[in-house]
Each structure stands twice: as C-alpha cells, then as structure tokens.
Amino acid sequence: MNTQRLIVERLRGIDQRYYTRPENAAIIEEMTWDTYDGWKAAGGYECITRDLYNWNYIDESLGYLADPSGTSITSIHFYSKRSNYNEIIFEDNYGRLCVLDIGKRKAGLTTEEPFRFLRDLQNVEYNGLSSGRKRYIPRNNDIGTQSCTFGGRLYLVNGVDEPIVYDGNTVDRAGFYEKPGQPKANVVVRSYHNEHISDGGADTDYFLGTRLKSWGLGSLKPKGAKSKNGSKDFIDGKLAGYQYRVTYVNSRGQESEMSEPSDMCIFECADGKKRFVQIQLPVGDDSTVARRLYRTHDQLDDFGNSIGAQVGRNFYFVREIKDNETTMFEDGLPDASLGFMVDDFEFGKYPMQAKFIASFKNCVFLTGGPDNLLRFSASGMPEVFPKRNVIDLGDSDAGKITGMYASTNSLVVFKEYGTYLVKSNPDGSFTYQTISRDIGCIAPNSIKDVPFTGLVFLSHNGIFALKGFLEDSNSPTSIIDLSTPIKETMDRVCVSSSFGSVGCLNRQDKEYWLCVPTIGEKNNLLLVWHYEVGAWSLRNNYPIGCAIETRGPSSDVIFGSSDGEVPGIFVYGHYFRHKNKEGSTAGNSDGPVDKFITRKSFLDNPVYETVPIKLNGTYGSARIAYVNLYAVAYGNSPIKLNFKINRNQELALESDKSMIQQHIDSEEKLDIYGKSFFGRDSFGYHRPIVIRFDISHINKTLVTEFAVRVTQDASQDLSRIMLVGYSVDAKLGEQRNIRALTDVLGSDRR
User: Is the dihedral of CA 332, 335, 339, 341 positive or negative?
Assistant: First the structure.
C-alpha cells in the first residue's frame, strides 16, 4: 500500500461549509489564536470583587423588592476624565446608578459595598429607593443606557429617564427640555413724596430717565410741534418699542431654548430723557445657575408702526444675570451697545426620548426617539440642539434607527434594514449618503470598530463589517459578510432576542467578542473573531449583559452579568483557567448565609476539531495509520485525541486517547510543573514537540473522510494546551491478496 502524509502546519478558524480546506476547523471552543500562529487554551473570568461581596443579596428591610431572578447588571460605562482618573459606572436591575469603588475591599473592609451611589446636585443618591432616585430598569430585550464622553464629561441616555451628565463628582440633568416662562417688560416708573402740596403732600409718579447719550432706551427724535413757551422740549416724542426673551444657563454654560417674546414695551421720551425698562425674569429649576437676557432693537418707525417681522425677530444679547434668584432687572443699554445677534433657530430643547448618543465633529448626535430623526447639537455645545439641526434619513420601510457609531471621518447610522454615512461639510453642516437599503443593525451594542476588519455589527442576516470609511474618507465603502463560515452556528441564535447582543474588543488577545442569545436563553454564547488572522471560534457560558473595554496601561474586558445565578461584575484574563472560580457571592456580613448564595462556576474543555479531511480524493478511501500533533510542550499537561470518520457526528472512540506533552524520540524528559525546582530545573515552555497517536490498531476500516478532535481534561486546573499543526499518515489504495496458483488453475491445469 502507498503511505502518504498530509501535513497542516498553519491552523485557521471555524469553517462550517461543506467543502473547505484542511487548515480550517469544524469546532474551536474555549481557545484563542496566538501570535506564534497556533491555538491555545483561552482564559476565563473572575468576579471583580472575588468573594468579598455578596452581589446577589438584597436587604429587603431597606425597601427593596428582591428580584427572584437575581441581581443583574443592566449597563456599564468606562469614564476617563484624565489619564490618571478612570471610573467604571454601572446600573443594575434595582434602578441603582453606581461607581465601582473596590479600594476598601482590597484593604479588607469587607462590610462595606464595593461601590458607591452617584448623587445629584441636591446630594440625593441614585439608590433605587423611594427615598432617593431610581433609574429605569430595562426589559429583557431593551438595550439599556447608552453613553458617550464629551468635554471630560460622561453623558447617559436611555429614552425613558431624563438624560444626565456626570462630571466625576455629581450627576446633573443634561440640557433643558422646557423653555423659560415669558418675561414681562414695562417702562420704569418711580414715585416720590411731594412736600410742597398744601394738603401735606402726596405720592407722585414719574418716568425714570437719563440724559446720558450712552445710556437709556427710546429716541429723542422730535415729533409734533414745539411748546408754546419757546423751550426746546416738544409736545410729543417718537414712540419706541422693545421685546425681550430669556434663556436658562446651567453650570456647564449650556443654554436652554429661548422663551416666548415678551409683550412689546412701548413708550416715548417727550421730556428729553431716555427711559429704563424693567423686566420681570422667570426663575429656572435647580440646574439653572444663570439667565441670559436678549432684546430687539427699536421695532417702531417714525410713525409708530411696527417695522416688520424680518427685522423685528432679531434679538441681541443684553446681559447675563449670574444667579437664579433675581426676579427684576432694569435695562438701559442703547441699541448701539447691544451684543451679538441670535436667532431662535439657534436654540432648541434637549431630545429627552433619545436612546442613542455619539460624539462626532465637535457635536453630540442623538437619535432613537419616536420621530426616528437624527439631531445634532451646536458646535462645542453638547447640550444645545438648534431647531434646524435635524437630519431625516428617509427610507421609512427600512425600520427604526437602531444605533450609530462615530469615527474620525464619518458617523454611521443604522436602521433595521439600512446603513447610512453622515459626513461633515467645510461650512460645518452635515450631509448623508445611503450605503445599503437591505443590510442594517439589530443589536446596537454589537457595533465596534475592529482593527484590520472594519465596523462590525449584527444584522438580521448575519455578522457584517463596514469597510472603507474608517481608514480614508475618500476610500470606497463596502459591506462584507463575516459570518459566512459560521452559518450553522448563526442558526442557533435567537433572532427575536438578539437586540440585546453585546459586542466588545479584547485587545489583549486581539479579539472581537459578540455575545448572543441562543434559543430559549439569554446572552450566553460568545462568538469570537480573531481579527489578526481573520478566523472565528466559540466559547460557552459567558452571561454578558453589558461590557466595556478599559483603556490605559492595560486593556481589560469588564462585563456585567445578565444571569442572576452568576451575579456581579467580572473581569476577563487570559491567565484565568476557570470562569467565576471563586464565586461571586459570599456568606458574610452582607447577608444571611442561606440567602441568595450562588456559586455557579464553569470549567470548559478547550476543543479543536478539524474539518472532515479527504485523504484519497473525492471517492477514494484510506486506512489511517498515525496522527501527529504539533504542539507546544507544557510538561505534564495531557493532550487528548479522538476522531470522527465519514462525517459521523459520533466520536469513533468511547474514551479519548491521552498523552502527556513530552517529546516522542528523545530520552530527555521535560520537567514537570509542580515538581520542578526553581533555579535548578528548566521548565519546558514554548518548546515545539510532536505527539504521535497510533490509529492503525484502533481503527482498521477504510475511511473516505477523517476528522481529528483534540481536547484537554478540564479537571486539570493548571494545565495548558497550544496546538500549532498536525499531520495524518494514511495508507492509500486497496490491499491485494495473492491467491495460490493451484486455486486458480482448473482441473486440466490450464
């Protein structure tokens, strides 16, 4: 028989298509691709507070109604005010808004919570109680709170609660959603006591005025006939008319919508003195720290007629009243001394029902409201949304807006069945173009900018990547399907619940994560895109309800659990072997030992299974002799092998064949982990070896297709595995049995 060897030295990712190349895999679970061009056991995750806090215990005596499904994290946000100031903000299913504060836990002060409640301007806590403030608790298929950073502040929206902004100290409402009340303006009149009246005097009213040319309102332009006594005074003066508007200002210098104009204040200056106008100012809420007063020019002509709407609607800055208490202000600023002109369309309400937020080209974009419109703020004013700053993407049949992402060059806006690019113009305006009317995004939290790949997102039809706009604003933009090799896995995804799917970057291992729900489950299946090699793998038991990637000296993946049986906030590490090994709750002073105690932990096997390999053509068969695994030696860590033949889903062996990672043809044995001495022995990390499995005496049948399955015993807590290639020795052709000549010849020996 002809013996041949098939060598595969560069392993790639999952490809579930019927015919594919031998370097691809049918299954890769709990493994990650390494820059040494191999697949090794993936890491795990641990509760960020380990066993020091019982995340699942709720003290009902405080007024909480314990959730029978357990505690879950509904949103998580990374806030970086400066390079040395980073915080993790999160919400849970009790409506609490908190910031992680685990320093006390690390110090051993286990009786205190590893977080603190955020507070508003009145020092009221977001503790989820009636005595404090409570955030909206998302339903099962809601996306939860979205956030973005602008000007060193964190802005949060969810479409239900009032939008808020966090500056590292307190929480305040973002912007204004109500216009100020209408101001009232009247010419100033004073009164004094006349002592020269014989009856003892009386109060006399007079118009407060001034003869200073640089002060006062109105006009000294004469109107009518001179007085009969020959003085320079005139019987009548020109009528003047003014209107006022007011805006509120918060502590961040953000301005509200303009009030309705005051009724016109009309007066004349017949006595040769200009007048003062008294304005009754509206008072704002607690977030208001100042008010700005605006006024028109004189709106009446020489004949007392209104000048017209074109000019009359222009308002000019008068003064900023730097408090929220003053109710009366007297204005005597002449028209020539007024400040900048403003337009009513330069102001607008903050979109209170927005669900999505992004920062792009020095503006904040909000969308997701009932009107399905895209709104953007004034430049450098993230809480001021002018009435004219609206973009209607059209395509009503494309569904509602489902998310957006801002890059340097473009803002990508998604609908259920549409993708759009918003770009800036030199004059500061924005335009948009349609990229697709068929492919959109169904999971807002899946959208991530992935290196070497593009903007990745989950669609109705799979996982797609938008390429081109991120690298160069002039480069062509295209949409490619990344999920073609894993269509079989994508069929397991529950589309009706996938709106809450979560994407995140794991830069340590050069991965893009997408946690999706399978049929009848919450988010639990982790689809991993290894972007440096362009390959997929899978991981199980990842209850990711929300996730962030921290930036700074280290890049960590931190996620909040959506599973009440695995409560808490977790950090991923490629050095962890278990998933939630220590458990996330503890029977300490945080609550009774027998109440809400959960220690659900996972230890899953790393699995690499090759695609079915044809060793002798499409219709040929072969006998398998040996399987040689090319691996990195990790001492006593065992590697287990099994196989499948002829596309049978059942494994050929009842139990895996196991071998320790030692070199097959060398008398030198690697030092064993746990038994070697530091400084004396040389532990054999990163040493390439060949591990040979004899298959000839196990399976003697002819096979047309052969698949190798490599795994490792999960009970080996400290074990490691790294597979860099394999080869299969097979005997090709049919064996011919030589018969005796006497059996062949007839009776006549012919």
Answer: positive
